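Re: your question from the hallway

Yes, I did run it. Sequences:
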Amino acid sequence: MDMIEVNNLVKRYKGAEAPSVDDVSFSVEEGEFFAFLGPNGAGKTTTISILTTTLSKTSGEVRIAGHDVEKEGRQVRENIGIIFQKPSLDPQLTAEQNIRFHACLYGMCGYRPTFKMMPTAYRKKVLDLAEIVGIQDALFKPIKKLSGGMQRKLEIIRSLIHAPDVLFLDEPTQGLDAVSRRSLWEYINDTRNHYGTTIFLTTHYIDEAENVDKVCIINHGKIAACSSPAEMKRGFLRQELILDAKDRTALTSELYSLGLPFTVNGRVVVPYQESAQKIISRLQTKLTVLRIHEPSLEDAYVEFLSKTGKDAA
Amino acid sequence: MSELVLTRKKSRIFREVNTTVTVLAREITIFFKSPGTAIMSLAMPLMMMGMIGGNLMQNMAGGLGFEFGQFMLVGMLVNMLFMVTTMGMTSLVDDHESDFNQEMLVSPVSRYSLVIGKILGAGFAAIISMAGTLIVGLVMGITLPISKLLLILALSPLMCLSGGALAMVIIGLIKSKRTANLAVMLITMPQMFLSGAIIPINNTSGVLLVLNRFMPMTYCLDLMRAVLYAGSPDYDSVVMFNPTVNFIAIAVLTVVCLMIGTFFFAQSEKNR
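Structure:
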């Protein structure tokens, strides 16, 4: 079953010459981890805003969990959680008060004026989540006194407290340090494995999308490519053997005689399609350097944008 | 067992009421965390009732055919409810600037529940101001019987809802704090002068008559005065309409303003 269905979606902002999202179509299956990548201003946040009912579309059809975002906005909102690109916490409340506000709006419990008076299940879940993301000491501090990273972690707790079927993450790790990023992703992956949550991710950290099920690249408002990360890497980049020898001339002559393509760029680089083992076993020259370069999704992404003549910045 | 598992409540009514209570509680929490707002709520009555009211009493009280002090106290009480509620509604602009409106609007609840919670929250500060007005009135020698005071207090949330709904029509569309502050003046000043808060409007005619008939505060004031002057010989000189007419007019104007204001607010956040 498709959890997210987008057909011919168009969004043109008031007064804008060109649409920000231009005839975009894609789908995300239930439980799938989906990454929506693209340079700044490509239309990622506009798309996510329409999908989460916070922005109206110009035309096209969008369904979340089988519900139309325009006609059945409330049912869509019942099924989703979102971490916005910009923090959307109330700076005047404490961290826990922000979570309580959210939990009550999503009908998880009746409002009570203090944390101690809240139901046991709520208190347990908040404390468990706070421990997982490492903000238990900051739970009762005002938002103003929390660092950017702490605030982001708090937003993550907040977005998961109502166990949504679809979780939209709009650049969720922006401003987080490496350790926080890692612990956050561990938690999101655990949640996904445990509850089968469908995840829709936009990010500028392409390595975060390395393990997703499907990647779509949007550029200038249009879908430029859509496939699995492995297919995308295969489509744009080759695997490479990086070699060197004391007698580099002998090595290059041998590669030439074997009919293997290569380039010399600091080291001897031999692209290959099938087996690195087969190439190495045929070489007689004594090697001093032997490395296999597996292209990353980021390599493929940058290559794709440069080949299509568009800047990634 | 249900206490140990966090599950979503099914009842729609529970969720909507819970939303309004949650938003109201947030506003009250913020009120107590903002000493400036609390001080303002208590300073306003001093200025409005003490200075403007005191001056009017000393210079305009004669020849009206009824006791002006009590007439003005009710006017100031309702005016304070409207003015402070309207000022409180500008926090919508703060929520827009901190992107907190998005957090509220992406939740699966009625926009009306959110807006009503917001209005009642703004009304909380207004009721504090009303208490301040009563204290200033007491210092000026204007007192009200306890039974009437309780009735006025019971009616005050309705007045706040009415004032807040009217404010929503304009403030719901505004996205900058400076414009919002101007809007507060635009909403509150005409009502203060045209609806009979401090100046009797029994003989008003022409355009001013048309204007005051469209102002919710006209009916709120008249209803409050009907309550206060019930059984008094001054009733006919002070009260203009039957309380039922007032109540219906307040209800209709409040519902209409609430619907328009909530629609504008939700659409202005969504239609960009």
